[in-house]
Amino acid sequence: MAEGTGPDATTRAADRALGLLRVVCEHDGAKLADAAKATGLPASTALRLLRTLEANGFAARADDGLYRPGYRMVQLGVQALSHDSLVATSRRALRALVASTGESAYLSVASGAGEGLYLAIEGGTQSVRHINWVGRTSPLQGSAAGAVLLGKVEPGSFIVVAEGVEPDTTAVAAPVMAGSRGAAALSVVAPSYPTTGPGRAC
């Protein structure tokens, strides 16, 4: 058998890739040199593996050159932790939003690469209501939930955005705090027509 092939080589490559992925996930961005040092790999090997992880959505290289968890990593985490404490803790608030508005309510988190990921929904009770976006990603820029996840909304406050993610919808979003840190966004998404017009707030 040729050197560098076979089960042992495959296991080593997997171990190295997982080691790099762990470093990327455990830090708020990791430089190539730091990731290589933390895993004991040559920089060229680390770069090759990080590019493979990036190509498959498990890592993302930001404009500042740091590697962070990619969208696919976040999606898999959500799927594996569908009963995560954040979702369970937020469920009561989601139900309260639906009870007071009749519209669909969402919980979302930042997923890297300038996108947010919808973790949970409490379906609205209106005959015309927003569809289920759980598991879907959307750009942070221009959306109500995105503004929250980008830290543009103060704790205890909220933001209203019309025509943000898609036409003919209006969203209201507020931050979910974990101590002093914004952990997620709670939002209500509704068709725009009930929220506009004579005598309505825009």
Task: Describe the structure in brief.
The protein is α+β, with helices and mostly antiparallel strands and 202 residues long. The protein has 2 domains: 7-69, Orthogonal Bundle (Arc Repressor Mutant, subunit A); 77-195, Beta-Lactamase, CATH 3.30.450.40.
Describe this structure as you would to a colleague.
The chain is built from 6 helices and 8 strands, in the order H-H-H-E-E-H-H-E-E-E-H-E-E-E. It is of the alpha+beta class. The longest helix is centred in the N-terminal third of the chain and has 20 residues, at 7-26. The strands form 2 sheets. It has a 6-stranded antiparallel β-sheet with strand order 5-4-3-8-7-6. Strands 1-2 form a two-stranded antiparallel ribbon. It has 2 domains: 7-69, Orthogonal Bundle (Arc Repressor Mutant, subunit A); 77-195, GAF domain (Beta-Lactamase, 2-Layer Sandwich), CATH 3.30.450. Strand 7 and strand 8 (181-191) form a beta hairpin. The protein has helices at residues 7-26, 32-39, 43-55, 71-80, 85-101, 144-149, and strands at 59-61, 67-69, 104-112, 115-122, 137-139, 159-162, 169-178, 181-191. The protein starts with 6 loop residues before the first helix and ends in an 11-residue tail after the last strand.
The number of helical segments is 6
Mean pLDDT: 82
The named CATH superfamily of the largest domain: GAF domain
Please give the radius of gyration in angstroms: 20 Å
- C-alpha termini separation: 70 Å
The CATH topology of the largest domain is what? Answer: Beta-Lactamase
Instruction: Note the beta-strand portion.
Output: 25-35%
Provide the spatial order of strands within the biggest beta sheet: 5-4-3-8-7-6
Residue windows where pLDDT falls under 50 for at least 5 positions: 195-202
CATH class term of the largest domain: Alpha Beta
Q: Which bin fits the share of residues in helices? A: 25-40%
Major sheet: size, sense and barrel closure? 6 strands, antiparallel
Shape: elongated
Give the CATH architecture of the largest domain: 2-Layer Sandwich
Helix and strand sequence: HHHEEHHEEEHEEE
Classify the secondary structure makeup into a structural class.
alpha+beta
The count of strands amounts to 8
Q: Provide the domain count.
A: 2
